[in-house]
Amino acid sequence: LTVDLLSLSAACDALDQHNLKQNDQPMDILQIINCLTTIYDRLEQDHNNLVNVPLCVDMCLNWLLNVYDTGRTGRIRVLSFKTGVVSLCKAHLEDKYRYLFKQVASSTGFCDQRRLGLLLHDSIQIPRQLGEVASFGGSNIEPSVRSCFQFANNKPEIEAALFLDWMRLEPQSMVWLPVLHRVAAAETAKHQAKCNICKECPIIGFRYRSLKHFNYDICQSCFFSGRVAKGHKMHYPMVEYCTPTTSGEDVRDFAKVLKNKFRTKRYFAKHPRMGYLPVQTVLEGDNMET
Predict the structure, then answer these.
(1) What angle do CA 288, 289, 290 make, to 5 degrees?
(2) Among 9, 176, 195, 254, whose CB has the most other CB atoms within 10 angstroms?
(3) Domain 3-184 has CATH 3.65.10.10
(4) How many CA atoms lie within 13 A of 67 on its CB side?
(5) Which residues of 253-290 are buried (b: 16+ CB within 10 A; e: fewer)?
(6) Structural domain boundaries of the chain?
């Protein structure tokens, strides 16, 4: 869809130009096409070899309807349009979080449970459309809303700073977005290390370094397909790198390996470490209106 070429400021300019301020208002297909045309006309000026305006508008319209208008009513909410475009655009992760939070916050900058539910509901539709929603805790967003407000000591409303702190823990329902950013960052990354399994050197893409054995690295294709070398178990801790390591990270990892050398197999089996904040998916309490 080439939305990865679109800066957040350019997206905001296009939205302002079309006066899309009322987030709960519906947009019809003509409004969606007009706004997408503005976005892609601007992108074509900077990337004319990558952007075919009629094709991109058609593809992006189709994607937005597949994600947010499963009943094909010909309408989606302005909030859904913004969530879809901004989630995939070119911007720092925290800038995206700030922008999306602002869309559901009140004029005083606070957000209640219902408004946060709207944002999480629209965000989870993207992995749902790809058939991946089960990995992110299912499409019921109520446990995620509860997780965020528990993190906020059950205040009735939260402010942006608290929302950002919660998002930095990578809650299960939203972890797909930072993962997408890491995948994009890793695509061209070259690591001066050799894969202990297939012997690829340098490792391109994601690098997985063992925190149990010294100088033990796995490339992404071996890691994703579950290959292991002799003496290395799947439950041993590893750290993922999407960009080349700094000397500080090398020293930190060395210290962790040293510590783990004295830990038993039973310790690792009993202390599995999740790289994200798990969200309980059990249906409890009243279902939240989305």
Answers:
(1) 110
(2) 195
(3) no
(4) 25
(5) beebbeebeeeeeeebeeeeeeebbebebeeeeeebee
(6) 3-184, 188-270
Phi, psi of 136, rounded to the nearest 5 degrees? -110, 25
DSSP-derived 3-state class of residue 27: strand
Long-range contacts of residues 255-262, Cβ cutoff 8 Å, at least 24 apart: 256/211, 257/210, 257/211, 257/212, 257/213, 257/214, 260/211, 260/212, 260/236, 261/212
The three state secondary structure string of 4-26 is HHCEHHHHHHHHHHCCCCCCCCE
**Tokens of residue 256, six digits:** 């962790």
Sequence-separated (6 or more) residues with CB below 8 Å from residue 2: 40, 43, 47, 50, 51, 56
DSSP class per residue in 116-163: HHHHHHHHHHHHHHTT-GGGGT-S--HHHHHHHHHHTTT-SSEEHHHH
> Is 242:209 a contact under the CB 8 Å cutoff?
no
Residue pLDDT, tens place only, 16-27? 999 998 999 999
Q: Which amino acid is at 269?
A: A
**What one-letter code names the amino acid at 80?**
S
For the stretch 34-87, pLDDT in tens is 999 999 999 999 998 999 999 999 999 999 999 999 999 999 999 999 999 999
Amino acid (one-letter) located at 100 = L
107-121, 152-166, 256-270: least confidently modelled range: 256-270
**Banded model confidence at residue 248, pLDDT cuts 50, 70, 90:** confident
Phi then psi for 153, rounded to 5 degrees? Answer: 55, 35
